[in-house]
Write a structure and sequence with these properties.
Beta-Lactamase; 4 domains; five-stranded antiparallel beta sheet; 19 helices
């Protein structure tokens, strides 16, 4: 204990608690800081306290302090627990030594209150644990290097993302890591740029994952750059979802465009094919001009096939419900295409007998033919094609290889695999788009039509391919669950009924009227829905042919209005925009444009007897 006045003043003004006590725990001197620490008002109040009874929380707290004094004569940072006047427990760190006086041994000590410091450290520790837990649960990893690119710290989902523990490269350099795990990007260069104060953000592909990384400078408290800090996150799922959204929007836009083009062309083809059929009914075989008309009709039919493919891509090709066995269908297609498949291309088929799907046989044939032809073309004259099918139940969850994800349910997976050059990711993304082709010939509509047909049937498409590894296209087609549907026999036509044609295209109205008259019926025409409804009100109309897409009043609205006025009036919906055989639910029949005169004849013969019901 100092005796010099200046030292005593320093003792009393110290912000750290100081005291002298004897071996029995009696306080001999205390400074104001200790008085405040213990929550008392005056020095005398504290001097009246007994250390063991009134200050320490228990005898076990003071015993180690006395042991230190006896063994070494010093106490160096011993942590003990004291209680204040109000009973609040303090964590106190003691520093002291033994002093010999004329009255015997005493102890001089300083007491530092660590309670708030400990609470702050505990709070920081908990926050650190929470942050580390969050980082570990996120698909992200982080690392810190010094200026020599030596790893100081690493954490997060390192194990899940890279396959090794976070501590693997602590103390080693970035060059060591790259020697074991080469990177597609110049990782060293990005870290060097970070050491120069730059923040770099980039994405890279690593073992099938898309990683988004950020690397920037690591600074000390003075703002000096002492290393680099980096983070990387697995954004594979996000990028896949993003690509699917973009692809879906592109497909929707192209579908609208394709459907609109098909509608306009089909209206023109109705006139072309209708007039060709009428001319051929008037020109006997062998007469001049007949061959030219036949060629016009053939060209028109080929154009109609192209518009059918456009409608199929647009998802307006309709979906059948017939039970179809793909095995015999594939055998038939291979017989038809045998001459087009080079001799050095082997074809194997593995389709269980009686395995069946539900759909339109013609459209399933078109899908399989396109896949077989594309596999053949990919081989460039040499290789193998494997065609297989097996039952499959899907959960409805998307797969990274999906072009079109099938809903949950039972399907038959129709697979066509070739061992050709394969496709990269970008080609796989675009291969089902209309007008996209990797061939020097072709219009790029075959696989686009496949996509539309499968979509209309509620199925899915999956491509597994990589450059140099061939390609496997799997079509998930709804499995058959019902027996084949029976067709109702057609009824013969009645004599001289009147058929009203409602269409906004003058060429279509004209040729349909002539076709109707050539079939032995009377014909009337109207340019729009309101005009047609007035003619039905004013005259004797036995059947109506109405276009589905018209200005002023749509075909569906016309059908609804006619049903209210004359429920038993036969109505046939025609459209070049929709291949769905149902049409509006209240129509009696549906004719997809362009249609031939024989299709019109069959439809009218079937429906006109309905007027007597």
């Amino acid at each position: 204990m100092p005796t010099d006045p200046e030292l005593l003043r320093l003792y009393d003004r110290s912000p750290i608690g100081m005291y002298r006590s004897d071996a029995n725990g009696r306080l001999l001197r205390v400074n104001p800081a200790l008085v405040a620490m213990l929550g008392y008002d005056t020095v005398d109040e504290v001097l009246a306290l007994d250390l063991l009874r009134d200050v320490y929380t228990g005898p076990d707290e003071r015993a180690p302090v006395l042991e230190d004094y006896r063994e070494s004569g010093f106490v160096e940072g011993r942590r003990v627990h004291w209680k204040t006047r109000t009973g609040r427990v303090l964590t106190v760190q003691l520093f002291g030594h033994v002093v010999e006086t004329s009255d015997g041994l005493v102890f001089d000590a300083t007491a530092i209150d660590q309670t708030e410091v400990d609470a702050l450290e505990e709070s920081l520790r908990q926050q650190k644990e929470i942050v580390e837990l969050v980082v570990r649960q996120m698909p992200a990893a982080y690392w810190i290097t010094d200026r020599n690119l030596r790893f100081l710290q690493s954490g997060g989902a390192v194990d899940q993302m890279f396959g090794f523990p976070a501590s693997t490269y602590i103390g080693r350099t970035l060059h060591d890591t790259l020697a074991d795990y080469p990177s597609p990007t110049d990782t060293v260069a990005t870290h060097v740029r970070a050491l120069a104060g730059e923040v770099i953000q980039y994405e890279s592909e690593w073992r099938g994952k898309t990683l988004a990384s950020t690397i920037g400078p690591y600074r000390n408290g003075k703002g000096e750059i002492i290393g680099a800090i980096g983070t990387t996150a697995d954004v594979t799922a996000w990028r896949l979802l993003e690509r699917r959204m973009v692809d879906a929007q592109r497909a929707e836009s192209l579908g609208i465009l394709a459907g609109g083009l098909a509608h306009d062309f089909n209206n023109l083809l109705v006139a072309v094919l209708g007039n060709a059929d009428l001319a051929l009914r008037e020109i006997p075989a062998g007469k001049p001009g007949r061959v030219a008309i036949e060629n016009i009709r053939t060209a028109g039919l080929q154009a109609a096939e192209l518009t059918d493919q456009l409608l199929a891509y647009a998802g307006r090709g309709g979906a059948g419900t017939t039970r179809v066995e793909p095995g015999p269908l594939v055998d038939e297609l291979l017989r038809i295409t045998a001459t087009a498949i080079p001799a050095e291309v082997s074809v194997s088929v593995d389709i269980p007998a009686k395995l069946a799907v539900r759909g339109d046989p013609a459209q399933l044939r078109q899908v399989l033919l396109n896949l077989i032809n594309n596999a053949r073309d990919a081989l460039a004259g040499r290789g193998s094609i494997a065609i297989s099918a097996d039952p499959l139940h899907t959960s409805g969850e998307a797969d990274p290889d999906d072009v079109l994800t099938a809903p949950a349910g039972s399907f038959v997976a129709l697979r066509v695999r070739d061992d050709g050059p394969g496709m990269d990711r970008e080609t796989r993304r675009h291969v089902f788009e209309p007008f996209f082709t990797t061939k020097s010939t072709g219009h790029g509509l075959g696989l686009a039509a496949v996509l539309g047909i499968v979509r209309a049937h509620g199925g899915g498409i999956r491509i597994v391919s990589a450059p140099g590894d061939g390609a496997e296209v799997s079509i998930l087609w709804p499995a058959a669950v019902t027996a084949p549907a029976m067709r109702a026999p057609s009824a013969p036509p009645l004599n001289a009924p009147t058929v009203l044609v409602i269409d906004d295209e003058v060429l279509v109205r004209d040729v349909l009227a002539r076709m109707i008259e050539d079939l032995g019926y009377a014909a009337m025409t109207a340019p729009d829905g309101p005009s047609g409804i007035r003619l039905v009100d004013e005259g004797e109309v036995d059947a109506v042919l109405v276009d589905l897409t018209m200005p002023l009043m749509s075909g569906a609205d016309v059908v609804t209005a006619l049903r209210k006025k004359k429920p038993n009036l036969p109505v046939v919906v025609c459209s070049g925009y929709d291949r769905d055989g149902r049409g509006p639910v209240q129509a009696d029949a549906y004719l997809p444009k362009p249609f031939r005169i024989d299709a019109l004849e069959r439809t009218l013969a079937k429906l006109l007897p309905l007027r007597n019901v």
